[in-house]
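Format is sequence with structure; example below:
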Amino acid sequence: MMAVRSVNGGLFCSVASPPLLTFSRRFRQFTSLPFRRNSELGLWFPVLCSGNQFLGYGGSLSHSAHSLVDCVMEELTTWRSRRRIRASVKLTSSGELLEDKLVNPELEKGFLLEFKKDADRVLLGVAQRPDGKKNWMVYDQNGVTTSIKPQQITYIVPGVENFDQTEISKFLQKAHENLDPTLLEIAWVELLEKNASVTAEELAEIIFGSSEPLESYCAHLLLSNDEVYFTVLATKGSRSIYGPRATGQVEELLHKKLAKEAAEKELQDFVQLLVSAKAKPARSKPAKSSWMMDEKIRYKIESLEAYAIDACNSDEQRKTAGMILKAMGLTKTSSSAVNVLINIGYFPAHVNLDLLKLNIRTNHSDEVIAAAESILSESPDSDEMNREDLTHLKVYAIDVDEADELDDALSATKLQDGRMKIWIHVADPTRFVEPGSIVDREALRRGTSVFLPTVTFPMFPENLAMEGMSLKQGEFCKAVSVSVVLHFDGSIAEYSVQNSIIKPTYMLTYESATELLHLNLEEEAELKILSEAASLRLKWRRQQGAIDTSTLETRIKVINPEYPNPLINLYVENQADPAMRLVSEMMILCGEVLATFGSCNNIPLPYRGQPQSNIDVSAYSHLPEGPVRSSAVIKIMRAAETDFRKPIRHGVLGLPGYVQFTSPIRRYLDLLAHYQVKAFLRGESPPFSSGQLEGMASMVNMQVRAIRKISASSLRYWIIEYLKRQPKERKYRALILRFIKDRIASLFLIEARIFRSAWVSIGCHVGDEVEVLVESASSREDFVLLEEVIRDESA
C-alpha cells in the first residue's frame, strides 16, 4: 500500500507504485515547475521552494502546491478503487475478465442451439420464434417443435444465422464424425503448461485451427462430455469457460474411466449373451449350470434373479440388475427380470416365484440323504417285542391317486353286541428317526411336505419316506394303531393306542372307494361298516355343535411342467363325497382319541382347538348347503389355537379335544405327537416338555404358513392357466356367494373351484347359480375377468 504525506511542505512517497509513476510523468508534461529525481524511489518530485524557504506560505505558488496534492490524492483514490474491482472479478490466466468471455448473445430467429430436452436427452434445434416473454419455440433434430426455457439452452452455435432446419441432422452427423477425444489430451497438455483457460471457440482454434460453427460445436461437445481433462471454471447461461485439471487428478480420473469402460464392455458382452440365449430354440438354450461357471457372469445372473424375486441383498446387486435391464431396453421391474430369465431358459416358463421368494427347501443335502440311507439299512425296531399283530384285519388305505406318502389306513368290524370297532392305523416313522438326529432336524426345519400341482417336496428324504416309512399294499408294515369302540350314538365307548404290525389289503383312490360303497358288495362289508361309523360320528359331532364346512376342492396335476404348454389335469372334489367323508371322520376320531389318551396320561402334546361358542349356524340356514353356506360360515370363524399341556375344545369339530396324529410322514407336528406317545408306550418319559413343544411348534407353524401360501398361489396359477387355455365360448357355472357393491358379486366357479368377482344382472340373489364366460386371464398376474351370460328369456 502506498502512503503519501507532506514533509516540510514537500511530498514524500513511501512506496513506488504504477499509478504514481504514471501521475508523475503526466504532471511533468503539463507544468513548468522544476523537478528533482529521487534515485532510490525512481520518482520525480517538483521543486516547490526557493532557497531555504518553502513556497505556499503566502507565496505566489501556494495554489499550485495545493492543486498538486489534490491531484495526487485523486489518483490514489482511483487506484484503490480499481484494486477493489479487480479483487472482486475473476480473471483468466492471461488476465482477461471472465465476465467478458461469458457474454451470452441475444437469441434470434434462425440461431442454431443445443438444449436439454429432459434429464437424459440433449438435442440440437433451430430457434423459430419467441413464446411469451422469455421462452422460445424451437424446431429440433427429430422434427418436433417445442417451447423451451432460457435455462434449458446449453450452447448457442456462434456464427450461425438463419440456419436451415432441414440441415440439423446433417450438421449433427458431421459434428460427431469430427469428434476425436484424443485431441483433448493434446490441448490439455498445452493449456496446462500455460495455465490457461478456454472457451469452446478458443479450443476449436487450438485443435482444429478454426472457430467456424461446425468446429466450435465439435469443441463444445468434446468439452461438455469430457470427464477427465477439463473442468468448468464458470458458467453463465449457455456460455462456459473450462480450465485444465491438475496432472494427478487427470491420472486418477483416467483410471476410473478405464475401469468404467471395462465394466461397460463387460456389461455389453453379458447382454449379448442374454440376447443370444433368448434367440435360441427352447431345447438349445444354455443349461442353468452354464451361467454359474464364470464368477462375473454368475454375479450378474444372480443379481437378475434376486431382482426378479425382490430379494436383492445389497444396493450394488439392485444397481447391477437395473443396468442390465436398461441396457436391454427394458423397464426396471421385477416382471422384466422374470421375463428375461424365462426367455434365456434360466427359469422355466412356469417358474414358481414364491418358492424362490420364500426360500423353501426343496432338495435334501447329501449329508441328510446319506443319513437316511444308513437308517434304512441298519435301523432296528426297538418296539418289535411290543407290537400287536393285526395282520388278520382287512386294511383299507384310501388317498388321492397320485399320493406317494401313505401314512394312514383303516379297518373295521362289528362286535357281537352290534357296536362298531374301528382301527385307525398310522405309519410309524419314529422306528427310523430319533429326536435330535440329523434327519429329524431337517424335518423340523421343513415343517411339512410340500404338495404342488407340479412337484412334491417330501419332509423326509424320498427313499426313506416312500420305501421305509410309507404303508404298502400286501407288505408287513410297522404302525401305531388306534382302536375305538363306538357307542350306538357315535360317542367313544372305549379305545386303545398300541404299536402294531399290519398288512394293507387295498390301496384305493377316493373315486374307487366311493364306487365300492355304491356297489355295496357283501365281501366288502368292512368298508360299509366304516361308512356307517362315519355317518354315526358326523351325526354325533353335529349334536355337539360341530360346524360343517365341507365344500368343493380342486386338485390339479401338471404333466411336464417345465414345458411352455404342459398338460393340465383338473379335478374337482366334493368333500361331502362318501369316501372323502369316511376318511375325514376317521381321522377326526383318531384325533379325539389321542387328545383323551394324552390328557389321561398327562402327556404334553400339541392339542388343537378352535373356540366357536358365539357362532349361530342357524343364522345361515337360509343359504344353500355346500360352498355358499360354508363360505359364509368360514368368514366368521376364529383362528385355531394350540395348547401343549391339556386339551382345549375344538368348537368347529364339536370335540372336547383334538390332536393331529395321522400324518407323521408329512407333518412335523404329527411326528412330535408320535415321539411323545411312543415314549409313553415304552414306559419312558416324553422327550419334550410342553415348553419345548411350544418352541418347536412356533418354528414349524411359521414354515407351514409360508408353504400354505405357496400351495394356494400355485394352485390358483394353474387353475387360471387351465381357464386361459379353454375355448373362449366355454360357459362355466358360478354360485353367488355375496354382493360386494351394487351388482358386483363374489362368485365361486364350480368347475374350477376358484373365487372371483363379476357384475351380475338384476334379479340375482345370494345362492343363485349363474353362467359366466372367461373374458381374459393371466396366470402370472393372478387375474381372471368374468362376464355373466345373460339368458334370453324370449327364446
Notes: The chain has four domains: 111-245, 265-347, 384-712, 726-788.
